[in-house]
Amino acid sequence: MTMNAALQSLVRPALVLAVLVPGTRALAQQEGKLVIEAGRIVTQAGPDIENGRIVIDGGRITAVGKADEVEKPWDATVIGGPKFVAFPGFVEAHTSQGMDRPNESIDVAPFLDVRDSIDPVAYFFEDCLRYGITTVNVQQGWNCVVGGRGMIVRPVGMTVEEMTVRPLFGMKLSARPKSGKSRATQMQTLRGAFDDLRTYLEDLVAKEKDEQGYAKREALFQGRDLEAEKAQGRAMTSTAWKVDGLELIPRGAIDERYEPLLGLLEGRYTVFFQCSEPVDVAHALEIARANGILAKTTLVIEDGCWKAADLIAEAGVPVVLEGPVVDVQRDPITGEEVETFAPGVLHDKGIRFALSSEDPNSRSPAFQAALAIGRGLDRQVALDAVTKVPAEILGLGNEVGSLERGKLGNVLLFSGDPLSITSWVEQVVIEGKPVYDRSKDLRNKHLLEGVQPPRTAPPSAAPGEDPEHAGEKGEKKDEKKSDKGDEKSDKEDKKEDKKEGGGR
Amino acid sequence: MLTLLTLLAALPAPRPFALASDGWTIRASVVYPVSGAPIENGVVRVDGKKIAAVGKGGGGGETLECAAVTPGLIDLSVDIDTGQLSVEQSTETAVRTSVGDALDLFSYEWRRDLESGVTTALAVPADYDVIGGFGVVLKTGGAHTLAARQVRPEAVLRGSIGTQPSSGNNAPRFGAPQNFYYRRPTTRMAVEWVFRKAFYDAIQGEGAEDPERAADQQVLRRVLSGELPLSIQAKATQDVRTAIYLKEEFGIPRVILDFAIEAWREPELLKRSGVAVVLPPFPPDGRYDDGFVNDSYFLPLDAAEQLHELGVPFALSGHSARTVGARLGDQAGLAQRGGLPFEAALEAVTLVPARLVGVDKRVGSLEVGKDADLVLWSGKPFEPTSRVIGVLLDGELVLDPRKR
């Protein structure tokens, strides 16, 4: 080994770590190569590939193409086959599931971090794999004014660290009134949060200027050494409104309760702004504009918010559609029921939108995309809404959302056309590592396929029956039963485990 | 006068009734007649209120084009809100009341069902009585009179086994003021007892000197003879068992178990007893823990497939779901997700329910002479990527595919 090579082998893992945010561990960094073969590959980056092959090395896709054009590394594990359809893993742009209680009673709590609340064994993450969601943005629930900071995870791992894709990503703001608040108090509290920050910073600067050394004394009181923290003051140059003289204040001296909100103003976090009614959209945009965070804002919209599509289009912000794909409302005057295909309205106005697994009807992104296509949305637009667009919203446009060389090896193998009701997610690969196999998903078997409890039939079934027929069918059934019976005992064990584990 | 006549003659011929007399020609990439094999590039010819031809060629009238055409769907378990006013609560066995008298034909929910492809429905009284009265089969659209919509007035007698007829009832207490809530069954056992007593009395002619009771018993004897099907709401496993035991005890020939969430748990009983089953809608994503049904019930996605394997006649139901993606056509999709073949899913929302309530001579398949109830689809029926784009009801275009 030359000196150079030795150096490289030392440096490369460090580089990989450096690319990812500190504290993150690439899932498949140590895994070997994986080859996925499929009868059809829907790359979401150009035309579909018939009889294709995907090579994943070090967690990333190194080649995608026709099987006879892509070389199969001799040391790679091979999965898939001609009956499968490969598809990029779905991306969930926003969810408040998978946490132990997603809401906080404090109105303004930007200092919180969902990392402390995410429950790796939550049923939700297991479900994500069943539906083929491989990248999940977890944010605090809507029941807040200013929520904590969220994070992007992959739905596998026993610790939050293992799951982490991007820590401290995004911040939740809500225009939807927190329970117990009116819209007026919600807005007042929202404005107040930023006013408080401003007042606080101005006080801090004033005190510093008065040479009271307030910040220093506070730090001393807290036992912190400002110099040792190397905290540098920074002027508010990148924000919509300014506090003059903030550069005098070392960052470490700013109270942690306020600091994340200052970070928000400086564009460090994507805002996920919850809107339950059209009027909330106007409110959210007002707050975003007033504080110069519009460019970093994504609206999370519920049922009727499509009515504010003009406002959204004008603001140019992307949205996550949490309401149903078809909004059904009853006209209060005519009494007629009116169905509105929300993605159609958004698309017509040129709004970029992501569909969400928070839809009450189905968590499956494939089903939602299919429904949208059924209602006339362009196939590519619908598929992008569950892959590319959410990836872009999460700033992961170069990482996930399509099957291309250089992107993360997040691949789904469907049993047929991903949009057909009869297709199932058969296998899930996250960063080159097979993490889900439906044939081994006992819980799915129980929930979705049903398991006949053994020997529930009353013994009276036999007499009076035609012995010939009873023999035929009885035999067949016994076979089936014994199969399923065995599975069941496994399942019960697993269910017990789950209960202790917490669930959601 | 003469000038007026000349003027009229000079005008172009009026054509307001031209459409009705010429009828419709529906061309579809696939015609699913249900009663026969699918016809590729087929044509259905509608003349007046009836189907005039089903096949490859022919034409006339206005032409509609679509990807697929099926018969109008039939839902034996709609949920049009009639509330408690559809059921007589002064007695547990309101045998001779008919839900037809309580239906609000102006309810917007009919239109919801119609536009999602359901053209025929069985309406039954709300299940607050052990025997709640007659159910009626009717079209989901048309003039706002029962006479205009009714397909079969006394289609079933409705009963309910389980907790619902007893829920909200109080056991009589000493010294407490009496109201009718104290008179009704308070347990599953008592519900069964009321049911059994009604049929026992009917067989014995007990108290038949009272003309009211005699008339009630006359209806129950129609059930016992097999002339009138008995539709029983039976959700949990024990309710399914009870209903089947009662069927066998009294030898009731035609029993339909409605909302039979857990019927699949009793395959042997179902097969032996010869009951038919109406499955409730599948909960979202096939999950029972999402709040649709109570935790103690469990409906797996392959319940329909299991019944199909057993040879038990079953129908699917949409329960007039508000959510798009959960309606009757979508249920046929979900049943396929659970393994049911397409053909069986199609039958379970058309011909099977029609037979169960005895209206298959008029609806349930595309055959010459049957009612012109048609559903036009944008793609393969029941797939989420397809939708209902057109509906004909009795030959009238109630949802226009050209406006979609």
What report would you give on this structure?
The complex is a heterodimer of chains A (504) and B (404). With 504 residues, chain A is α/β, with parallel strands linked by helices. Chain A has helices at residues 3-19, 123-131, 160-163, 183-209, 214-221, 259-265, 278-290, 309-315, 342-348, 365-374, 379-384, 388-393, 442-449, 467-501, and strands spanning 34-41, 49-57, 60-66, 77-88, 90-95, 133-138, 146-153, 164-174, 271-275, 297-301, 319-321, 326-330, 337-341, 353-355, 411-414, 425-430, 433-437. In chain A, strands 5-6-7-8-9-10-11-14 form an eight-stranded mixed beta sheet. Chain A starts with a helix and ends with a helix. Mean pLDDT of chain A is 84; it is low at 1-24 and 453-504. Chain B has 404 residues and is of the alpha/beta class. Chain B is 27% helix and 23% strand. An eight-stranded mixed beta sheet of chain B has the order 5-6-7-8-9-10-11-12. Chain B is globular.
Tell me about the largest β-sheet of chain A: 8 strands, mixed
**Overall mean confidence score, pLDDT of chain A:** 84
The helix tally of chain A amounts to: 14
Q: pLDDT average of chain B, as an integer?
A: 88
Q: Helix amount of chain A, in percent?
A: 25-40%
Describe this protein with a few key phrases.
heterodimer, A: 504 residues, alpha/beta, 8-stranded mixed beta sheet, 14 helices, 21% strand, disordered N terminus, disordered C terminus, B: 404 residues, 7-stranded mixed beta sheet, 15 strands, 23% strand
In short:
The complex is a heterodimer of chains A (504) and B (404). Chain A is of the alpha/beta class and 504 residues long. Chain A has helices at 3-19, 123-131, 160-163, 183-209, 214-221, 259-265, 278-290, 309-315, 342-348, 365-374, 379-384, 388-393, 442-449, 467-501, and strands at 34-41, 49-57, 60-66, 77-88, 90-95, 133-138, 146-153, 164-174, 271-275, 297-301, 319-321, 326-330, 337-341, 353-355, 411-414, 425-430, 433-437.
